[in-house]
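Internal tracking record. Fields below are filled automatically when a chain is submitted to the structure queue. Please do not edit lines marked as system-generated. If the sequence contains nonstandard residues, flag them in the REMARKS field before resubmitting.
Queue: standard
Priority: normal
Entity type: single polypeptide chain
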Amino acid sequence: MAEISAVSHAHKHCEGKSETEVTKHIEVAVQKRQELDDALHKAVDVLMPAARKQRVGISVTRIDVGRYAITLSRDVPYGTTMQFWEAADSPTA
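SYSTEM-GENERATED OUTPUT FOLLOWS
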């Protein structure tokens, strides 16, 4: 069974009157390879609206066997999702 945990951060709008929760980082842990693609797609889908709004890309980093971090990233071109192995070494876009 895939485990997905999101980290949200509250951001105030410029007007300073309302706060919205913006998810910037999601961790995915899977036990079976068959679960991986679906779990990663779901995590990217959650981050997509914030990536569009902030005009940033999304990085998918393998942090351990069966564990991935999906993060909004200014280092990834807007409209792009890139995969990295370990601590953001080299992309495998």
